């Protein structure tokens, strides 16, 4: 019984440490995804819209 409580306490400590570190992986993934989308937009803009010139 005591070993079970110690195991549970260790697992709780691990979870607390993970939560304390915060969502750094999620923020990194969101930043990378946003950078890719913006990069694709610039590529599309420079490759499609600018070569067509001004539409009159």
Brief overview, please?
With 56 residues, the chain is mainly α. The chain is 88% helix and 0% strand. The chain crosses the membrane at residues 26-50.
Commentary on this structure:
It comes from Caballeronia glebae. This is Cytochrome c oxidase subunit IIa. Keywords: Membrane, Transmembrane, Transmembrane helix. This protein has one domain. Helices cover 88% and strands 0% of the residues. The protein has two helices and no strands. The longest helix is centred in the last third of the chain and has 29 residues. The radius of gyration is 25 Å and the shape is rod-shaped.
Topology readout:
Layout: H1 2-21, H2 24-52
Keywords: Membrane, Transmembrane, Transmembrane helix
Transmembrane segments: 26-50
Protein name: Cytochrome c oxidase subunit IIa
| Low-pLDDT residue spans | none
What is the overall silhouette? rod-shaped
Order of SSEs, N→C? HH
What's the β-strand tally?
0
Strand content: under 5%
Structural class: mainly alpha
Number of domains: 1
Transmembrane segments: 26-50
Organism: Caballeronia glebae
Keywords: Membrane, Transmembrane, Transmembrane helix
Protein name: Cytochrome c oxidase subunit IIa
Keywords:
56 residues; mainly alpha; 88% helix; rod-shaped; membrane; transmembrane helix
